[in-house]
Write a structure and sequence with these properties.
It contains eight helices and five strands. By secondary structure, the chain is of the alpha/beta class. Helix 1 packs across helix 5 (128-151) and helix 2 (72-78) packs across helix 3 (80-93). The mean pLDDT is 92.
């Protein structure tokens, strides 16, 4: 694409489809040509320290970075697939530079996007653009879940980031769900009648 004169290429990826709590977060990243980010790959395969290092490098070197966040209530309303696509579309629209082409992680293109795009299965492993978006999305979501941990320490969001670990599931059974749980997800659905949803602390 660069050889053909297409310079503004955005990679987009989302994080947080599987958790029982919290939002789904997407990021879009436009990189300059011939950028060197050796060692970057799918964010899930990087250590915490490496993700933080690459997050800063990407933020400093990218032509533009956009983030889209769709909360748990919207996830419950439209399902996680549609919420993920909404988050990716929002991330692209939040770029301060309009891309000429978009590389999308996964097997589905983003609906309602008036920019040429290509869906790439396992794009975070084969495209530097998508891998960078994966890192931005992962770090952004993890930081959000650390903030939620301050409000709901009993769910150990600092450790599980909302995923259904044993510790998280045990807490769900003990306390019932809180406001940021996804009530359409089965483990939460099974527990929601045990107790009224926990409210945010003032």
């Amino acid at each position: 694409m660069w050889k053909e004169g297409i310079k503004l290429i955005a990679g987009v990826d989302e994080v947080g489809r599987g958790p029982l709590a919290g939002p789904v977060v997407a990021a879009a990243v436009i990189l300059p040509p011939r950028i060197n980010l050796k060692g970057i790959k799918d964010s899930k395969k990087l250590s915490f320290q490496k993700r933080e290092e690459f997050f800063q490098k990407i933020s400093d070197l990218a032509l533009s970075v956009g983030v889209g966040i769709v909360d748990e209530k919207r996830i419950d309303g439209v399902n996680i697939l549609n919420a993920s696509l909404e988050a990716m579309r929002s991330a692209i629209l939040n770029l301060n530079v309009r891309p000429e082409f978009v590389l999308v992680d996964g097997n589905k293109e983003i609906p309602g996007l008036d920019i040429p795009q290509l869906a790439i299965i396992a794009g975070d492993e084969s495209s530097l653009f998508v891998a960078c978006a994966s890192v931005i999305a992962k770090v952004t979501r993890d930081r959000l879940m650390l903030k939620y941990h301050q409000t709901y320490p009993q769910f150990h969001f600092d450790q599980n980031k909302g995923y259904g670990t044993k510790l998280h599931l045990d807490a769900l059974k003990t306390y019932g769900p809180c406001e940021i749980h996804r009530f359409s997800f089965n483990p939460v659905k099974l527990c929601k009648e045990r107790q009224r949803p926990l409210k945010f602390k003032n």
